[in-house]
Amino acid sequence: MIYEVVYFIGDKTDITSKLQALRSNLIENSKDLLSLFRKRMIIAKEIGEVKKSGDAKIRNRLQELKVLETLGISDPIEERFLNLLFELTILSESLVDESFECDSGRNTDKLQEVLAATICSPGDKLFMPSYVDIPFVKGAVMVGAHVIEESCDSFDLWISIRYQGKSSALTITKGNQNDEDERPDSMRSPKRIMIEVQE
What we know:
Blueprint: H1 15-53, H2 61-71, H3 76-94, H4 109-119, E1 125-127, H5 135-142, E2 146-148, E3 157-164, E4 167-174, E5 192-198
């Protein structure tokens, strides 16, 4: 892995050549990331097969917390990246499990998916005390949100989805962040969204 080092000397240098050199570095970096990502997806699929054979749950928040602690993540952008990586890994693990597929029998499914894609951003965190495979979650995951199977005392949004037959009612409430819960860089920090499902 060799990257070209570019030095900026003076203000009359050729900007085009500088940009070209930096973009070449980014391409090399992207190649490395893609190679590592492909290897990760192969490992994830193997993990999924082991979990399925042992009847273990695909989602494992304790393992995620261990990874975050081991890596010492403190930057919000890095946390967003890891949340997205977690969700892509879970998706690869779940491809061996047909039960992961979403039930699309309800006539409000598409609306839930569109709403989730509008509200959620890559790396946002969706908290659910117990995972339920519903269209809102599917839409959120498709844009890169990460599902965490636990409750959250302090959140930015609370979303309640109540099903009655083939229809559903969705309620969105602003969060209840504690006063002591400081998020100075909230624009960069992943949103915390609490999901409640009533069937």
